[in-house]
Amino acid sequence: MYLKDFRRLASFTLTVLAMLAAGCASYSPTSLPVRASIDEAKRMLGPPTGEYPLPNSGRRLEFARGPMGKHTFMLDFDDEGRLVWWEQVLTLAHFAKIEPGMTENELLMRLGHPASYLPIARQKLRVWNYQHFNSECLWFQVSVSDSGRVIDAGESHDPKCDGPNDNARE
Asked: Nearest 5°: phi and psi at 120?
């Protein structure tokens, strides 16, 4: 078995185990009806990975999924705590809306927490990594300054896809 195949199998296994550990928690909100309460959403999906205030006195709940973070569902609730909308946000369409100058809070509100991040002390920034399903081995990266502003963003090669000898061939 190739190392890449082993990593995929391990990732899948961890996802299944995480779902089983969550008990009756569901992976996605597809069966959650509009007007469901926040408590119903939490019962179905488990504890949120983030919570953000909306301008209309509502709340947005973030539910990041999978150990590799390839799905993040955002659920918006009105001021009465009733579901009005949900969407999977780790998509190219959502990535395209990330612009320099955005605040860290705006980034979190749009994409949620990253799967991982890398601090780069010399440049005084952190690189946030968002994994997503695509036909290539890419992840979406956002550079965030220490002052909490987006510097730039774009897709990059995911080094986890490299085999153990890929660098030796260069």
From this structure: -120, 90
How is domain 1-88 classified at the CATH fold level?
Beta-lactamase Inhibitory Protein; Chain:B, domain 1 (3.30.1450)
41-76 as b/e: b if 16+ CB within 10 A: beebbbebbeebeeeeebbbbbbbbbebbbbbbbbb
Say if residue 114 is exposed, middle or buried (CB neighbours under 10 Å; 0-12, 13-18, 19+).
Answer: buried
pTM score, two decimals?
Answer: 0.78
Which of 145, 86, 87, 155 lies closest to 120, judged by CA? Answer: 145
| H-state helical runs in the chain | 3-21, 38-45, 92-95, 104-111
User: Which two three-digit tokens encode residue 160?
Assistant: 């986890």
Backbone angles phi, psi at 168, to 5 degrees: -70, -25
Determine the number of helices (DSSP H) and then strands (DSSP E) in the chain: 4, 8
Average pLDDT over residues 79-96: 97
Give pLDDT, residue 133: 82
